[in-house]
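seq:
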Amino acid sequence: MSDRHAARSALPLRALIPNAITMLALCSGATGVRFAIAGEFEKAAAAIVIAALLDGIDGRVARMLRGTSRFGAELDSLSDVTAFGVAPALILYLWAFKPLADAGVEHWQEWTRLGWVVCLSLAVCCALRLARFNIAIDQEELPKKRLGFTTGVPAPAGAALALAPLFWSNAPGNSLDGDPMLKAGIVLMVTAITAFLMVSALPCWGFKAVKIPRSARLFVLAAVGLFAAALAQAPWMTLFV
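struct:
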């Protein structure tokens, strides 16, 4: 009797693998903050990109292994808040607004306060967007969801949009570090717009909404190959585009 009970209560390994990938995404996002504190912003941006890649496969791995669970869905949302809300907000603040004092910018205190409010809004809007997503996760009858669209910009895409100035600045010859005020102004604008898009009701394309005609599949595969080549040769500019 006890053996049968133990067998029923045991958790199969396939159920843990997707959750482990989600935890790796969370750890990667948090590690990005550590790199930003050390001033290694290229590594910080790379950590967020890795977190986005991991976040993109954990759900698919769960469905493939039949290891989906409500626990995994909640863990994924908590990971997304950390990796795509809190971490990018801190990275952007440390990159764009913390240096204003060292550069001797006039009224730098006001700029850093405003910068922190805008960066904080990114984390808050990310959390609100994910809370709305969790509420609607079982509501298949929603029109936009049936068509494969998402409501508002998804968290990983929002993090990428917010970090676009950092991607641009990491590309050779495009550094924004020479003009702290220009960098701060661009980050303010891009971050505020991204925060709004994350909590907006605008329908955004999801993978299910993209339908590729059979006649175009060779062109799509060729585009994927070109994208991979561009990513290898000029990763930051490719990510920015």
